[in-house]
Amino acid sequence: MASRQSPSLPVLYTTGTHYDVGYNTGVTFSNNIRQYVNSSKRICEKIKPYYDTQEGRELYDIFLKATEDSYPQYCRELRGISDGSGVPFEMLFLLNISPEVRRHLEREATPKVEADGCSDIFLNSPNLKLLVHNEDCSPLVKQYGYMLNTKIDDVEGKERFMAFCYPGILPGPAFAVNGDGMVITVDGLYPERVTLGAPPRYFVNRSLMRMTDIDSAKTLARNAGHGMAFGFCANISSIRNTEQSWALEIAPGHPNAGIQIHTIEEGTELNPNYYFRCNSYMHSTVEEEYDLCSTHRMLRAQELPAPKSLHDILNILGDTHHDLYPIFKTPRETDRGETVLTVSMNILNKTMNLYQGNPKYHSYPFMSLPLELYNEII
Fold first, then answer.
1. What angle do CA 233, 239, 243 make, to 5 degrees?
2. How far is the C-alpha of 57 from the C-alpha of 50, rounded, in Å?
């Protein structure tokens, strides 16, 4: 199937239990999920063959048990996606533990060119509060990704959120907003070691759709009694508590994940507080793989003038100055990822603006969505 020639992003509105929402997602996007699974070299040539080995099956079983113990509702949701799409549950679960499997397979590999990476900018002043995010991942996600706008009512409680989803992967690893007005974008982090016996990162990402404030986000990310197997940073703002924003770094650990929080305080109108981050731990002491791409993106951002407006931010996130490791990504030998979307979260205006293609060359987004979700899906 050819790549899309113009911006396009399907949105599914659905309600029900975790299983219902998963099933409806699977039915609606069965072709997207199948095409993604069958087209991904990473899945077909590395992850699936590894699962077919004794070591790979043992790793799968370890993660499945840890996940069922910690997040049975999200396992039901994933089984719904499987039943709806016709893609075997085992394949979808492999997809949802792919960061841990890849890290396990790449223990001795260097340099690494398959680590998904994103870039984020916070800008915080009394009159302008922005969280802007480059979604960097497999180029296939541009073709097959989708938005999910959902309300869940199940035995574990209620959830309300809108999230960008990778095909066949639970909501949470990209960007989202929930019914409590909590806005989140996610940057993958890549520790040296995976913590076995703890649930995978994507399931912890999924759990953050339930956060009501920054304290509950920390509690959910810590996942007391179970922890987390890998790492990520949750960049968080609130449309109801707008003075501060937060970068929440989570490190692998069992029985609790490691937590370190950086607060982006409000600057002044003339000097907004500016914070750039990508895919390295900045506030935590964690042994991590050396990431040339993150290093060069961070250095380039420091060379550019501090932004004062959305236009300035889009110029930074659209920067292609470095030949091998630009901030705005297109696939190349040194980094096979692509910036498939840029999303601007305007906290005061309560809008989410989406850009496909380099945002520095687009005056207007191709899609605008509200950050304020209501109790009922209309």
1. 80
2. 8
